[in-house]
Design goal:
- The chain has 214 residues and is an alpha+beta fold.
- The chain has two domains: 1-42; 45-212, Immunoglobulin-like (Sandwich), CATH 2.60.40.
- Helix content is 25%, strand content 50%.
- Strands 3, 4, 5, 6, 9, 10 and 13 form a seven-stranded antiparallel beta sheet that branches.
- A hairpin with a 2-residue loop joins strand 3 and strand 4.
- Its main location: membrane.
- One of its GO terms (biological process) is defense response to other organism.
């Protein structure tokens, strides 16, 4: 075989490899366009979360440093899938409570679940804050809030949310924020202790954010 023939075969192989790469790239682009078109036509919407009620079984702080906060809270949270053709998976959702942007309970893992078209899911988790250290400033503000008989907490849910269209599933990271303005009726006279049980009906709509994830 001549040098010319070898060069010819080498060029043919290069052309075949180039064509194969172009075909694979075209297929990937085509699939991406199909997914985008399906996504645009179906117009997926984020789930709607509502904080229905908050039950405080314990909300106690120490009166002298080091300041410690202990809480036992039950939450009732509902979620609705507003989509008519898209299902939603909830995975690794952690719920916890914050006060003045400080986390005051440990995170509680919600059950994994799948939500069909227009379905509603309801969770009633218990969240615990066992001897959580708080700063002197936060202790002072908390005492003032209890003295006025009201306080603002925030229920947060973080985890993974996935949309299902047919056999295709997209992954996103979700963050839900539910502000809850709690009124206790009778002020506590400045005492940083409340109990034994306070149940508050709220039906507060939550703010939902999602970002691209795995």
């Amino acid at each position: 075989m001549s040098v010319k023939d070898c060069g010819h075969h080498h060029d043919e192989r290069k052309k075949m490899v180039r064509r194969l790469i172009m075909a694979v790239a075209a297929l990937i682009i085509l699939l991406a366009m199909v997914v985008f078109l399906v996504w645009a036509i179906l117009q997926p919407h984020k789930p709607t979360f509502i904080l229905q009620d908050v039950t405080l079984y314990n909300f106690t702080t120490t009166t002298a440093p080091p300041y410690i906060l202990t809480t036992v809270t039950q939450l009732t949270i509902s979620s609705k899938n507003p989509n008519g053709r898209i299902g939603i998976y909830y995975q690794k959702l952690d719920v916890y409570v914050t006060y003045r942007e400080q986390q005051i309970t440990a995170a509680t893992l919600l059950p994994y679940s799948y939500q069909g078209h227009h379905d509603v899911a309801v969770w009633s988790p218990l969240v615990f804050g066992n001897a959580v250290p708080v700063s002197p400033y936060l202790q002072q503000v908390l005492s003032q809030d209890l003295n006025f008989g009201s306080m603002l907490i925030e229920v947060k849910i973080e985890g993974r949310v996935k949309w299902k269209v047919g056999t295709w599933v997209s992954g996103r990271t979700g963050c839900v924020s539910c502000p809850a303005y709690l009124r206790f009726g009778n002020p506590t006279g400045g005492l940083p202790t409340m109990g034994p049980v306070v149940k508050l009906q709220l039906f507060q709509r939550c703010h939902v954010e999602t970002t691209l994830g795995s």
